[in-house]
Design a protein that fits this description.
Elements lengths: L3 H15 L4 E6 L20 E7 L2 E6 L2 E6 L4 E6 L15 E7 L6 E6 L7 E5 L6 H4 L12 H8 L6 H6 L9 H10 L13 H22 L7 H8 L18 E4 L4 E4 L1 H4 L8 H7 L1
Antiparallel strand pairs: 1-6, 2-3, 3-4, 4-8, 5-7, 6-7, 9-10
Helix pairs in contact: 1-6, 3-6, 5-6
Length: about 290
């Protein structure tokens, strides 16, 4: 799933190509992706695009008072085309295309929103105010906001008895951090994913705060300026533990372990994060019984 760094890079990529341009056509293909009906997406046609911004994991494309808000979910992506096909897109079980936006001009450039797989989560909203999107309305503070201080972070964790891995992923607590970067942040902070948030000492909170900001800023810097089609690959190259089960930890050399759930998993280093003790993988334990 695209997270804060990739969506930040996508917003910058689109800002360069969309700002000041006029939208010619918006063509929904997968009706399931369109979550609003008033105003209709055709209301965007003829409007000039203004700022393109990021709100957590959401892209916000503003056009003269309307906001096209996109959440790419787990398998969605944005594909820029310098020249879109002239023929209108058609729905097809084999076609991953969810929505096409074409800009005015002879080039016919624009972008496609696509989603692979059978589980459809990509969401497109056209609203007058981004706060009308439920996922945006419930977002917590952005960890890269200069105003987000250590004291603010400590206050978020103080009374939360959940495991810190789940807290970092909760969009109502922090906006933009998902499964991959929560793994990376916890590894950088040398902290167990299972540690209760409310049990953290002042020193541990400070260490986690520094790891959070440092990890995300580094990832944003790596993604800066890359075209949309290279962002996924760049993300994978930059990850130290997430998605690297069985590989050596780049810090200590221990083997990176995994804990699996029904539809996801996380990775960690026992030496760096759990005092050398592997965490119980309940799904694997059930298979071995």
């Amino acid at each position: 799933m695209p997270e804060l760094p990739e969506v930040e890079a996508l917003s910058a990529f689109l800002s360069e190509r969309l700002t000041g341009r006029v939208i010619a056509r918006v063509q929904p293909v997968a009706i399931s992706a369109l979550k609003t009906y008033d105003p209709p997406v055709t209301a965007l046609e003829g409007r000039t695009v203004g700022p393109v911004t990021r709100r957590g994991k959401f892209l916000d494309i503003e056009a003269e008072g309307l906001h096209l808000v996109v959440h790419l979910a787990r398998a969605g992506w944005l594909r820029w085309k310098d020249s879109l096909p002239a023929e209108p897109p058609r729905p097809s079980p084999r076609n991953p295309l969810a929505l096409r936006l074409r800009l005015a001009g002879e080039a016919g450039d624009g972008f496609d929103l696509t989603e692979a797989g059978s589980k459809k989560g990509l969401a497109v909203h056209l609203v007058r105010d981004p706060a009308q999107v439920p996922g945006v309305a419930r977002l917590g503070p952005d960890p890269l906001d200069p105003a987000f201080a250590l004291a603010d972070f400590a206050a978020l964790l103080r009374d939360d008895r959940r495991r810190i891995k789940g807290v970092l992923r909760d969009q109502s607590v922090l906006a933009g951090v998902g499964n991959a970067y929560s793994d990376e942040v916890l590894h950088a902070a040398r902290m167990s994913p299972y540690k209760p948030a409310a049990s953290l000492t002042e020193d541990e909170v400070a260490r986690l705060y520094e790891a959070l900001g440092g990890t995300l800023r580094e990832a944003v810097e790596h993604a800066r300026g890359l075209p949309a089609e290279e962002l996924k690959a760049e993300k994978k190259l930059g990850l130290r533990v997430h998605g690297r089960t069985g590989q050596p930890c780049p810090v200590c050399g221990d083997t990176i372990r995994e804990v699996s759930f029904a539809d996801s998993s996380f990775q960690y280093c026992p030496t760096c994060q759990t005092g050398g003790k592997p965490l119980a993988d309940r799904r694997l334990s059930r298979l071995l019984k």
